[in-house]
Design a protein that fits this description.
Blueprint: E1 3-11, E2 13-15, E3 21-23, E4 32-35, E5 59-60, E6 62-63, E7 66-67, H1 81-92, E8 98-99, E9 106-108, E10 114-123, E11 129-135, E12 145-146, H2 150-153, H3 157-163, E13 168-169, E14 171-172, H4 177-192, E15 207-208, H5 212-218, H6 223-234, H7 243-249, E16 255-258, E17 263-266, E18 271-273, E19 278-281, E20 288-290
Parallel strand pairs: 6-11, 14-20
Antiparallel strand pairs: 1-4, 1-10, 1-12, 2-3, 4-5, 7-13, 8-9, 10-11, 15-19, 16-17, 16-20, 18-19
């Protein structure tokens, strides 16, 4: 399947029908995008909700192949999450970004509407384009359908965030294996050089979780795992030793493939929770391919 090239601009603020500006809450792997030709979104395969533009013609993107530390998922946050967000916005070219008192919502930005484009073939379950994202202007015409090659993927913002250790890999089975392998090479290099998150990562080493606050303040882990643990506590559970039983019965127990072993299992199968409240992922994130829901 080919990818559709869609030109547009990236935005940190919108404007309502009364002419009042309001700010978005960007993070390290998501941003608002205004397509130059919104009709091109109709070319993308629909897996759930239809896409929906807001009153400014903006739509939220979902970056393909990566998972950045959470700034506000499940009402919780991860340590160092702002680093990925700030790197992304600086890389795209935003200047003098000021946030509200919460530190999440953009209050002002000097130069909103930075030029860029996306390469996408489908919408996610909530109608967001799943995309490789690029800053600047492409050589191809808007709406071009092209076969995406690994070298082009390596030029994406997605790859850049992995390269500097500002995001974890997060693969779904809809991502072609050659493109996935290109990203995996970048991930392994970043880890070997202790870049960014890899200085602090505890995902496969193990980390104690006596309570959610400890995880929010101390430990850097795969965001997808963080979201599952946060949901566990938000639902009123208090003992992390019960986490695997909860996950097994939950609709959040994702199906996945462990690539090196050829195993088709669920998320709980590759997790370990010990009696002393330590949680550990038993496989490297780049060796896991999730099935989309």
């Amino acid at each position: 399947m080919t990818f559709t090239l869609i030109k547009g601009t990236f935005h940190l603020r919108g404007i309502d029908k009364n002419g009042n500006y309001y700010g978005y809450e960007p993070d390290g792997d998501s941003m608002r995008f205004k397509p130059q030709n919104p009709g091109l979104l109709d070319n993308l395969a629909q897996t759930g909700w239809r896409y929906r533009l807001n009153g400014c013609g903006h739509i939220q993107l979902r970056f393909e192949g990566i998972d950045a530390l959470e700034t506000h998922a499940e009402g919780s946050h991860q340590p160092h999450a702002e680093s990925a967000r700030d790197y992304l916005l600086n890389y795209v070219g935003f200047k003098n970004v000021v946030y509200s008192a919460s530190g999440r919502r953009v209050k002002s930005v000097e130069n909103d509407g930075r030029p860029g484009y996306i390469l996408s073939k489908q919408l996610g379950p909530y109608g967001r384009p799943i995309a490789f994202v690029y800053s600047g202007k492409p050589e191809e015409k808007d709406g071009t359908n092209l076969w995406l090659k690994p070298e082009r993927v390596k030029q994406s913002i997605n790859a850049e965030l992995l390269r500097v250790g500002q995001a974890y890999p997060l693969y779904y089975s809809t991502l072609y294996y050659d493109l996935r392998d290109a990203l995996t090479g970048i991930v392994k290099n970043a880890r070997a050089r202790n870049k960014g998150i890899w200085k602090y990562d505890k995902t496969t080493k193990g980390f104690p979780v006596p309570e959610l606050q400890v995880l929010e303040e101390k430990y850097v882990i795969l965001p997808k795992l963080f979201r599952r643990i946060a949901r566990f506590f938000k639902e009123g559970n208090t003992k992390i030793t019960e986490f695997l039983n909860w996950l097994e019965a939950s609709d959040k127990n994702d199906e996945l493939i462990v690539i090196p072993k050829g195993q088709y299992v669920k998320f709980d199968y590759i997790l370990n929770v010990s009696r002393n409240n330590r949680v550990k992922l038993k496989e490297n994130p780049e060796d896991i391919v999730f099935n989309p829901k």
